[in-house]
Prior knowledge:
Layout: E1 2-6, H1 12-23, E2 31-32, H2 37-43, E3 48-54, E4 57-66, E5 71-78, H3 87-101, E6 106-112, H4 118-123, E7 127-134, E8 137-138, E9 145-156, E10 164-166
Parallel strand pairs: 5-6
Antiparallel strand pairs: 1-3, 2-8, 3-4, 4-5, 6-9, 7-9, 9-10
Amino acid sequence: xxxIRKAESxxxxxALAVHEAAFANHYATYHARPADAAKQAxxxxxxxxxxxxxxxxxxxxxxxADHKNHVHVLGLAVHPRCxxxxxxxxxxxxxxxxxxxxxHTTLVADTIEESGNVPxxxxxxxxxxxxxxxxxxxxxxxxxxxxxxxxxxxxKKPAGGDAPHCT
Length: 167
């Protein structure tokens, strides 16, 4: 059984370790330029951190930030041993419910196209809305990297249920 909740101070180190493990294979594809490394490290502290707990172990994490017209999902990460178990979907549903409570009907996320994560987000109900060249990352494998902004529209379920779904 997976429990999704806001991270507590005792969860932070474990959540960061999950993030590091989940993104380890992406570091071969891209990494922050040295001048931007501190900015990227600070991004891991933005917004509200959410964790997925199995037993007493943090197995996934994400952050979200409440913006004027949407909730921005940051740093979605599932430990490699726990991937393909719908945990990312559970985290995003928790964030979607929170977004609706905050009065928002849109989730936004960004990913690097060359990481292969665009189809993952599309499978989770997002659609790509913008693609730009990104310059805060560099790659030993790709001459140019692209940031893809994705969004997922939310609506409340009809009477009889209050969980969100995508449209």
